[in-house]
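Hi D.,

Good news: the full-assembly prediction came through. Inputs first.
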Amino acid sequence: MSRLLITNARVVDPASGRDEPGSIAIADGRIVSAHRDFTPDRIIDADGAVVAPGLVDLAARLGEPGHEHAGLLESELAAAVAGGVTSLVCPPDTDPVLDEPGLVEMLKFRARNLNLARLYPLGALTRGLAGEALTEMAELTEAGCIGFSQADVAIKDTLVLHRAMQYAATFGYAVWLRPNDAWLGVGVAAKGALATRMGLSGVPVLAETIALATIFELARDTGARVHLCRLSSAAGVELVRQAKADGLPVTCDASIHQLHLIDVDVGYFDSAMRLVPPLRQQRDRDAIRAGLADGTIDALVSDHTPVAEDAKQLPFAEAEPGATGLELLLGAALKWERRRSSAWRKRSPR
Amino acid sequence: MFVRRNPQLNKHDELIHLLSIEGLPQAVLTHILDTAGTFLSVNERDVKKVPLLRGKSVFNLFFENSTRTRTTFEIAAKRLSADVINLDIARSSTAKGESLLDTIANLSAMHADMFVVRHSESGAPYLIARHCAPHVHVVNAGDGRHSHPTQGLLDMYTIRHYKKDFTNLTVAIVGDIVHSRVARSDIHALTTLGAPEIRAVGPKTLVPSDLKEMGVRVCHNLEEGIRGADVIIMLRLQNERMSGGMLPSASEFFKTFGLTPEKLALANPDCIVMHPGPINRGVEIDSAVVDGKQSVILPQVTFGIAVRMAVMSIIAGNAP
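Then the structure:
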């Protein structure tokens, strides 16, 4: 096996808090300490580039099982490593839904065999994501699930949500919820002047804030660990900020789409911009950026959702929502960072 | 695919598709209205035909039901000597699962020159215009809630006919505006043509406050909305687009926002009353007003044929 030495690097290791110039030595596929006797077969001069552990993407759909016309495990995991993502979390809205331990085991087994990126599946919080019966969360955790989620399907019955969170809290399992009211949250664009002008049904910010308030109350009552998925509004970010200030142990993420795009990017009904959550206004994008900067938003995700071409070549409201993003996660983050500060400009252009 | 340039105009700013009134320069709108004026006389002759579109095939693609609009487009195309094919989409291959674009591609292979499209989803004509062959023209006959440009144009023709000058008019649009593509087209046309006061009138569930970003004054009271108006455009309650109970009943709507002769007296004495049709007597408008002397609802229909002839002849004459 070859021995590789990467020199003149900016070594960034968040786990140990390391961010300093240095070298990385790799032998037999493992990182080793670069002592004097280390004789590399190949040297890469990083020229100040960052050398970091593989990225973790908290939201990436893989197309399997059920949506193989859009993507396959192999193609999507290859896209992940091409984008520097070596660990990813996939939501349970596959077909069939990830609510059976056997399905989870199969998925993990296949991913392991492909040996591309590590897969951490989320199990369904309720059977079939139907919002009625609880899943066997202990069995699913044993099969490899790292948490439980409803993907984009809001639970209508607050009693069920309360019980699901209470049950998960029994074992300390994390509950990943997208804050979106089941009734108010229906629409293909963001409610506002632009959706009104374009004649598109809009999702009001209220759908997110009302759901957040409900989730916070239930979290306070049950003690469940909650991760909020895909914040989209300034009001939503502010509610999370307040909840954290009050000591509620919630975390949240936002997607690269909300980080860069806004409602006007829909242009002339471009169905590539048909996304869930819908693209909101400039002030919402600004709040997402501020939230990422000050830590209110804990993670940036790709929200990778492969969609077959045919499903996009339809009128806007009929098009399938989603966009690819695994390969764009790092680039999107850097693009934002470059706007904010000159700290990353140290690297000389190739 | 990002399309930033207005897809309706070619690089010389000439109209090649009519998809929406929004984004069209005032000169384009005025040219259409002027051309429509010349076609009015054609419609009064014994032989109501001009050869402008002879040899051209116009395909009426109505994905949403409409006898009235489809008929007026058919009449307009035939008066221009075009061959008209009506496609009954509900019974056609779309019901057998064929995608919208496949339908368009198949029809293009039959050498269509122009598609007149009505669809229940906002934006559908843009998708069609992006994908049909360069020499094929698309006319939007109504897409979802977004736009009904020929109706907007014929409404403007009507207003110009009776009022001459847009720049000193107060226009009230009343009713189910949030679901109305006619309202949006009228608002864009009126603002482009310089009408100084446009009011959107109706209950909060049907007239959202963010409409003001389109350049209108939002009124939730009929009396306030039509006081001193020169033009009142009444809209039908669009039951098929309403869900989740935006209104308690048609009779309460008539009581609070219906146009009766008593309410009409609050407008200017020479105010004209318009309606895109079909009208629901006793729901948004009283029969006495429909049949009264201020109503110009029937002339609207006549003007509609001339306006559609103008639109089709203009766009057919412009290269992509």
